[in-house]
Amino acid sequence: MNIQYLSTPVGRLVLGADDSGICWLRPGDAPSGAQLVQTPLLQTASIQLEEYFAGRRKDFELPLSLSGTPFQRACWDALCAIPYGETRTYAQQAAAVGNPKACRAVGMANHVNPIIILVPCHRVIGSNGRLTGYACGLSLKQFLLDLEAAHRTK
């Protein structure tokens, strides 16, 4: 995997890509074996993320390379279907993947999502409307939801 580090309003993010597309976007350290190499895809992704944080981009036009179980991939596909600035509950996500009782399993699939923001797991909230679990921290989740709410109609 080739990576680059991004300085963003939420701190440093590690952006990674393999031969098929973007496969990593998370805070913290790079996955083991990753190489710091600038590629055209990473450069394009960096520009699109900069536009997102500036409120000028609501949809990403990037190839994604997601590795996971069929259930995880279904959950991540359902995340990508949530429109910018909107939220869904874990129960709604479970229903969207055809297993209405799988709320906890959906939560775990969201937790291991390797591509935050681009696969918008921050858009899933508790059924009571409150923020619940986010692998990258609830303050980041709140920031992303507030960012999208501020730019939803612009």
UniProtKB/TrEMBL annotation:
- Methylguanine DNA methyltransferase ribonuclease-like domain residues are 4-66
Annotated CDD domains: ATase
| One record GO biological process | methylation
Annotated localization? Cytoplasm
Record Pfam families = DNA_binding_1, Methyltransf_1N
Q: Does the keyword Methyltransferase apply?
A: yes
Q: What is its main location?
A: cytoplasm
Report the active site residues: C121 (nucleophile)
Cite the PROSITE patterns for this sequence.
MGMT
Q: Which reaction does it catalyse?
A: a 6-O-methyl-2'-deoxyguanosine in DNA + L-cysteinyl-[protein] = S-methyl-L-cysteinyl-[protein] + a 2'-deoxyguanosine in DNA; a 4-O-methyl-thymidine in DNA + L-cysteinyl-[protein] = a thymidine in DNA + S-methyl-L-cysteinyl-[protein]
- From which residue to which does any coiled coil extend? none
The record ties this protein, via InterPro entries, to: MethylDNA_cys_MeTrfase_AS, MethylDNA_cys_MeTrfase_DNA-bd, MethylDNA_cys_MeTrfase_DNAb, MethylG_MeTrfase_N, MGMT, MGMT_N_sf, WH-like_DNA-bd_sf
What are the recorded GO MF terms, alphabetically? methylated-DNA-[protein]-cysteine S-methyltransferase activity
Instruction: Tell me the keywords, alphabetical order.
Output: Cytoplasm, DNA damage, DNA repair, Methyltransferase, Transferase
**Can you tell which superkingdom this protein's organism belongs to?**
Bacteria
* Keyword Nucleus tagged: no
Tell me which family the UniProt entry assigns to this protein: Belongs to the MGMT family.
Against NCBIfam families, the record matches this protein to:
ogt
Q: What does this protein do?
A: Involved in the cellular defense against the biological effects of O6-methylguanine (O6-MeG) and O4-methylthymine (O4-MeT) in DNA. Repairs the methylated nucleobase in DNA by stoichiometrically transferring the methyl group to a cysteine residue in the enzyme. This is a suicide reaction: the enzyme is irreversibly inactivated.
Name under which the protein is recorded: Methylated-DNA--protein-cysteine methyltransferase
List the source organism: Ruthenibacterium intestinale
